[in-house]
Batch of 3 targets.
Target 1
Amino acid sequence: MTMDRAETSARIAALIEPFNKKGIEITDATRFTDDLEFDSLTVMDFVAEIEDGFDIIISMNQQAEIENYGQLVDAVVKLQG
Amino acid sequence: MTDMLSDNETQGATDLFSKFDPLIEMRKGLLSTGVTDPFGLVMEKVISPTVAMCNGRETILLGTYNYMGMTFDPDVIAAGKQALDDFGAGTTGSRVLNGTYAGHKAVEEALCDFYDMKHAMVFSTGYQANLGIISTIAGKGDYIVLDIDSHASIWDGCKMGDAEVVPFKHNDIEAMEKRLRRIPEGAGKLVVLEGVYSMLGDIAPLKEMIAVAKKYGAMVLVDEAHSMGFIGPNGRGVAEDQGCLDDVDFVIGTFSKSVGTVGGFCVSNHPKFEIMRLVCRPYVFTASLPPSVVATAATSVRKLMHAADKRAHLWENSKVLHKGLTDAGFQLGTEEPQSAIIAVIMPDLERGAMMWEALLHEGLYVNLARPPATPANMTLLRCSLCAEHSAEQVQQIIGMFTRAGKTAGILG
């Protein structure tokens, strides 16, 4: 049961909402640390939400490659196989 | 050619140190308030495991991890002096070349006896033990599942290796299980846990966590740096105390806390463990511990096998201090004393540093711990008790905390 990119993006957008404290508009180019101002604790909680939501693992090694929203969506699509 | 050279000359140099500017500014801001630099303390003279001279003042030591007070044990010191005379000041070599002396084998035998395990491997520091074992046993395609509050040496071991690194929320069994369940079938798995987490002094529910790890076919490594010598009927640590030491594949420990000197180790019953001596780079490519250090360590480890009375007194100290500080109105890292570490939570770094200095003026040394070393960005005054702290010293400490707490405006 794989989701397409648009479907995955919609679900991630819903999961990101409680972490988007300033209500910043999310595009593929939105960066987690620079634009959304996620600190390391927020990153941990947010990653756990995504992992649980999609039943996947995003290892630290993979997280290091993900800087913006678009990259996260692509990674989640790929990780779902 | 000359044109190119002159082009190079005009390029502005990038200062590699500019990445440290935020930290430099933060330190400047803190020190400009007039507080003593909490990271620049010098012990001018050390009188005993619990007392030293700092800034010309006699100071009670409550932040040295010297849990069992072995640093001045007469047998330990005598063994070190003898080894200096018999074997010299240093080995000048790697364990696998010219750096294995009789003393290195003797301390490894002492560790096998202490833990009742088949293999022991001694590293030059505890940091290197975690760095070496973790980076070597978990390789490409393997998964390391670890607690998010793990010590820096564990994180650095992960970073040095090629395994996929998957952290979970501190002491959260369900979060750990979810991650283990999601690991692709057939991949190697290593679960890394600590017995005592040194920032808040809380212990891990190892029995439950290790049972889950085993259910998913993972190997288990437990860092017992802050429990050795003290926790468990034989001082083997939290896993022994919870009755699950047999299910731990690798115990990591240190000589720089309860043992009272410096060095690190891994003990294991794995039948192929000895191959580590050839493949573990932080073991191979560094000089071995000096003969005096391994001699003091071996003597200390053997004495710790018979230290039940000291263990009981240390527990008593921990309970009395925990209750005294709670009653005084301080917020502590754990509801009940779980180890020999008691963490006093400070409202922020500025007042934490003020309180630290006020305590130093009272004649008490504790550790000031701050982000990023601390969980949840907390500032902590971390106290580690010693079996050699007398009941009177513990009462003195409570008085010093209460007075300093009022001076620094932490207590009302």
Note: The interface with chain A takes residues 143, 148, 158, 164-169, 175, 178-179, 182-183, 372, 376-377 of chain B (CB under 8 Å).
Target 2
Amino acid sequence: MRGIHDLGGMYGFGPIARESDEPVFHEEWQETAFALLMAAGSVQPGFNADQYRHSVERMAPGHYLSVHYYERMLTGITTLLVEQGVLDLADLEARAGGVFPLALPVAAAPMAAFTPQPEARFRVGQQVWVRQYSCKGHTRAPEFCRGKSGTVLRVAPKFSFPDTSAHGGELREEHTYHVEFTARELWGADGNDSDSVVVDLWDSYLEGDAP
Amino acid sequence: MSRQAPAPIAARAAAVKSALIDKGLLTAETFDHMVHLGAEAWKPENGARVVARAWTDPAFRARLLDDATAACAELGYEGPQGEYIVALEDTADRHNVIVCTQCSCTAWPVLGLPTDWYKSPEYRARVVREPRPVLRELGLELPQEVAIRVWETSAETRYMVIPMRPAGSEGWSEEQLAGLVTREALIGTAMALPAHRQPIAAS
């Protein structure tokens, strides 16, 4: 099943609110949150983007959905800094003058079993399937495309495999693929004959044969 | 589990900042530098200049489509979240639009930090399933015969859209053309501005 961050295709969301001439930051604390993300690598040993993304994904769902993007950012980074012993939660709460909610701990056995794929197994034009897998930790194949079939549009370079990168597993790199799924394949009757979604997927997430 | 209301978010952010500074792990100058990058150095005007160059220079357009990371770097646009950029060219029968459904990944050096609507759960949830109603709601009505490709930024590729060059912009300078390319056009939730919207440049 999906985590709360995996929003693609979820029903029930209303109109998209826009603000004209929106500033990059609305308030000073948002600048602080962004600067913390940028500087996190220099204060936290072993920091990486996947670990950071998962720290945000671990927020309680109600908290995640109800706060601003930069509050999610601040919550995630602070959670990592507290977990790694760089900062102390009691000290932060004393400084803030109240409760400082953090993200929840990493799940036990967070990684799905994936076989490392050091070489590109797929080529442009090939039909592929996304594995129908379950994973409690960080992963980047959105649930809306799992078990679905698409066509490779582009073979991208190798990048660090996010599931293991986030969870201290074996560091490895794999190619990603821009895989195009028809709207009908993804959404059935909700889809449109002319439209499609392209998802950027690591080699391990894919199969060359129908499941 | 505590049911107390959290401390105000501004107080929580200030607490983390002051704790890191007091421990000697970061300086106030580091914070200021990062904010400068986010608020001033990375902006959609950079991507607009890339698009205007592509509209006026066929050799640059070819390089942009072949290797957008290198082409953007030619104009000085590179850095975090710009390590592997792919440019998506709109045509008369295909429109491209970008989203990151799982967080809010964007090509910072050429699009700038994303605005709140792009980061909203509403946009992230809806644009993949119902791109036409979403684009219509955002002011872009596309004919049924124009195919829409929604690009989900799920891995390390960062996308930018090359919108179609507006009719009536023939002979315009690169700078004038860049003024037609908005953040929304680079994301794909709008077309480039019509050429008559451009103020007449002083000569």
Note: Chain B touches chain A through 72 residues (CB under 8 Å).
Target 3
Amino acid sequence: MNGSLALRTWAILWKDMLVELRTKQSFSAMVFFAALVLFLFGFAIGPDPATLSRLGGGLLWIAIAFTGMLSLGRTFQSEEVAGGLDGLRMYPGEIRAIYLGKLLANFVLLILLEIVLVPVAAVLLQLEPWGRFPLFVGITLLGTFGFSVIGTFYASLTQHLRARELMLPLLLFPALVPVFLGAVNATTLALAGDPLDRIGGWVRLLISFDVIFFVVCVWIYPLVLEE
Amino acid sequence: MTTTELPRFKRGRAPLLGLVTLIILVAGAMAGLLAVPADALQGEVQRLMYVHVPAAWLAMLAFFVVFVMSVLYLIQRDPRWDLIAVSSAEIGIVFTALTLVLGSLWGKPTWGVWWTWDPRLTTTAIMLMIYVGYLVVRSFAEDPEKRARWSAIIGIVGFVDVPIVYLSVLWWRTLHQPPSSPRSMAGEFVYVLLLNVAAFTFLYAYLMVRRYRLAVAERQLEELRLSREDRGGR
Amino acid sequence: MSRIPGGEPAVRLEGIAKRLGWTWALRELDLEIERGSSVVLVGPNGAGKTTLLRLLATLLKPSAGAGEVMGIPLQRGADDIRGRVGLLSARGYLYGDLTAVENLQFAAWMGGTRTDGRSVRSALSRVGLDHVADRRAREFSSGMQKRLAFAALLTRPLELVLLDEPYASLDTDGIRMVDEFVGEWKRDGRTVLLATHRRGQAVSGADRVAVLQSGRLRRFCLPSELEPGDLDPEEPEPGRPESHAEAARG
């Protein structure tokens, strides 16, 4: 049974990635949107390099959160086009495979976005992530995973609501406050240096959030899709 | 045909509960305004504490009830739990907003600003947004069963989130400056505060009874509309 | 109704009701279907045919009543039931950006089969799509998409096959293909429940006919015992694009 859960999770991830690959335009659009957000921040804040790099961690995560929100909404809409989520629900075994597959698909997609976005942000905002790069990568992975855990969950929950484009951010952003604080502060410390060694606390917060909400969301997800 | 067994209310003891609540509220207000002296440092404005803290307590209590009722609903699927949850959520939101306004009024003379990123104040604001989301989702879901199920899920996830939000904001603030910690209070202040907390707890009970009956009536109206639209039914 | 000795019926429903939003799509439905038989489900749009099929596929939870599919209770055994039941929906559930082969590969994996490409290709050739195996489903005509959706069923071992409007948008060859599959499934001892507007051959070839009306089972009988009023007088042409009213129901 567990083998089949893994197989079906993989199948959904494979299918979603393949669709993304076939429709490269939407991924490019995501990247350009994220870069555009960074440009707007630059205009809003001004060209002073010191200010930009001090705020860099926060700006990077706002760009990721906004872009990620748009891509979350699309995850379940692609199923709508294929005829609805029944197309996934009708298969045997645990319904949780749908959540796990979609979660991984969102996670991988955001990581791909970040691989492009981080160098762009480094140039635009004068960031230096290369000094403590493994730490920076670890924080980014943890933050992105937390975002995907809650984001996929609420995207699925709001899928059948009227005004879902409005409801998703309304539910998602308040719930994300701990991830956002953890990711922004840890990233800023990783970029600027961490003389008081406070980064460990934020990383532990991110790990706790990721674990707690992963367990809660996986556990109650079947109730989301019931009909 | 109905899957809903909703209670039918007789003339209840709600007016009596209301009267008791009113008496304790008046007693609490008088105690807070007259019986205790003003704070040595902050002066008269500190008396806001006797409303601010009970309002915050009531909001927390209300959201805890939302959480418990959400869990119960998902286990038993009894629409009554859902109606209690939404009643409690609405009351909680009103008193969360009140807590924020009072905190802001208290903050202006004390800190010199209407808003400060104090961990408790910030968490209260985030909590307000979480539960406003809870209510808005309900207004966008037409099917009563889905509405109840989805909002129950948000009631659970949101409640789990609140303490983590608090910890993260607390941490964030302590990096910049220590949070405003409550000073130890003298005995008489504590008693007056406890009296007001008790008064607000009664107020919660009274409002819950009223709001729950209204929720049941709304639900029965919906059911009635269903059976009229569905005359081909049994 | 006679039962195969020792075998649970494929479907047993008692007092099933389903509420969708503010309407009752099914009311007090009792139904028992023998294993290995084929039953045709007829009734006007909105009678509850799709709802009944979705309920048997455990995509909907009954609001009231109890039921078993393959001897497994609907309320508790949904994950197991889905392993034995396949649904061909009017909506197809195909991904336009994937090729025919990829769509089938996905269906096979989701069904829990670690399949290689060969069985997928053989399913494709059985529905007559091997010549377009590597074309994207988006480019297919609606008849070809229906065939592809059929092939997805063939990648999985099933005991109960639920077909919702299988004839819709198929040409004469396609219709014959559906009838052949139904016959083949029956010979293999599988149970077939088929909802259709098409009266002719499907109804007369079935073991039983179930007539649904306003969410109730109006009649469950041999095809020869049908009364004129049981069938909708208006008979749509085979191959006509089907109305979306049925598909759009919850």
Note: Chain C has eight helices and ten strands.
